[in-house]
């Protein structure tokens, strides 16, 4: 056990580097689940919070969205980051509570319903084949994350938004800078001020896009956002940009993390790779296991609207809570042998997409992308192995592998 005390274990949740060391992270989370599942964390540079680490307690909080609100602190950042985010005024779906959340979420709901997913599947399948074909034509070695995993879901979500392909590399760079602000390799600079230009470039790009779609509406999601009305009024520039941001960034970064993490899990567990290749009917359950295994969204924050109790802990009105999804998805009370990767796991009650009114808007799309990609890749594998050390992103919010060196041959 690397974590010596419960307080040490709690502070791990506020240490971006801990998410690069899975042994350290999971040792701390297992200690919390066992000895202090609702634990008060007071970490340097952060406003204190309750760490909620058991699956059942996370579900309790998610269901009670009137008691535990997303605003004003939906994501764990430093005290300085809390102040900066409030000053900028970006307000995405993850910042909102009902009734505002329900009204704004409805703008994109139809684009992610089953009927819309069926219409999009032809394009997703096509993009999966394009990227696997590119692997097959390659040298047989490379960084799967940077060569494939970040690009395939980027093409999907940018196509849905209607963004020109020439702008894809810029969007990828800005997304990695925003979500990688705690990572020495991905961040734009060492301070919060250094990361602001990435957000401002996103703001300028999407403000221009809004104006363009209002002047000349098109049949894409960007036009739906630009021309949406809430209570009869068009979205303000900041609200429209906020909607684009959550779709354009979370819409591909989380999926790329799951694709690369899923492939690594198959490499690390060759018996599971053989089982899945022998019976591709297991692919839907394998996809769910990849999502549980990776849990690309590590946590969200909530704020207690009134005094209440979770387990034996007395939560005060105004207290912040961190919902550790990565912990809940390894909870032995819910998952049999939670530290084993099992492509046939059933049931799989993972909470990687959240639960309740804030359940991930793009969950169906993510599942479809993963299914299409592995349906194309797995039957074509002749050889697959690691070619170096995988590297994870430093984060406390969204992340996964940033490098996965592999050697392979495909048909």
From TrEMBL:
PROSITE patterns: CYTOCHROME_P450
Pfam families per UniProt: p450 (PF00067)
Cofactor: heme
Acetylation keyword on record: no
Alphabetized UniProt keyword annotations: Heme, Iron, Metal-binding, Monooxygenase, Oxidoreductase
Keyword Heme: yes
Gene3D superfamilies membership: Cytochrome P450 (1.10.630.10)
Family: Belongs to the cytochrome P450 family.
The name this protein goes by in its record: Cytochrome P450
């Amino acid at each position: 056990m690397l974590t010596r005390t419960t307080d040490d274990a709690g502070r791990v949740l506020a240490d971006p580097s801990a998410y690069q060391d899975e042994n350290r992270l999971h040792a701390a989370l297992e200690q919390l689940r066992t000895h202090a599942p609702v634990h008060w964390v007071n970490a340097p540079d952060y406003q204190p919070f309750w760490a909620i680490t058991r699956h059942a307690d996370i579900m309790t909080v998610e269901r009670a969205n009137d008691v535990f609100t997303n605003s004003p602190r939906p994501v764990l950042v430093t005290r300085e980051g809390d102040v900066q985010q409030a000053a900028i005024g970006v307000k995405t779906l993850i910042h909102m509570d009902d009734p505002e959340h329900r009204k704004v979420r409805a703008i994109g709901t139809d684009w992610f319903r089953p009927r819309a997913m069926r219409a999009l599947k032809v394009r997703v399948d096509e993009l999966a084949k394009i990227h696997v074909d590119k692997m097959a034509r390659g040298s047989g070695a490379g960084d799967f994350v940077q060569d494939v995993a970040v690009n395939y879901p980027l093409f999907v979500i940018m196509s849905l938004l209607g963004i020109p392909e020439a702008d894809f590399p810029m969007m990828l760079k800005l997304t990695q800078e925003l979500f990688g602000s705690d990572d020495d390799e991905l961040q734009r600079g060492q301070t919060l001020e250094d990361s602001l230009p990435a957000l401002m470039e996103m703001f300028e790009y999407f403000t221009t896009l809004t104006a363009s779609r209002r002047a000349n509406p098109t049949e894409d999601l960007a036009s739906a956002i630009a021309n949406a009305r809430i209570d009869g009024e068009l979205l303000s520039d900041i609200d429209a940009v906020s909607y684009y941001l959550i779709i354009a960034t979370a819409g591909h970064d989380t999926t790329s993390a799951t694709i690369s993490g899923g492939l690594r899990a198959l490499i690390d567990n060759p018996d599971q790779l053989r089982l899945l290749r022998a019976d591709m009917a297991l692919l839907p359950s394998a996809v769910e296991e990849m999502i549980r295994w990776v849990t690309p969204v590590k946590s969200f924050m909530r704020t207690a609207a009134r005094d209440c109790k979770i387990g034996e802990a007395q939560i005060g009105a105004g207290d912040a809570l961190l919902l550790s999804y990565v912990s809940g998805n390894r909870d032995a009370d819910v998952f049999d042998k939670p530290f084993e990767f099992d492509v046939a796991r059933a049931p799989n009650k993972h909470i990687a997409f959240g639960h309740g009114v804030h359940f991930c808007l793009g969950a169906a799309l993510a599942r479809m992308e993963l299914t299409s990609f592995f349906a194309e890749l797995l039957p074509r594998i002749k050889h697959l192995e690691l070619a170096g050390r995988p590297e994870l992103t430093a984060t406390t919010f969204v992340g996964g592998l940033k490098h996965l060196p592999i050697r392979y041959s495909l048909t």
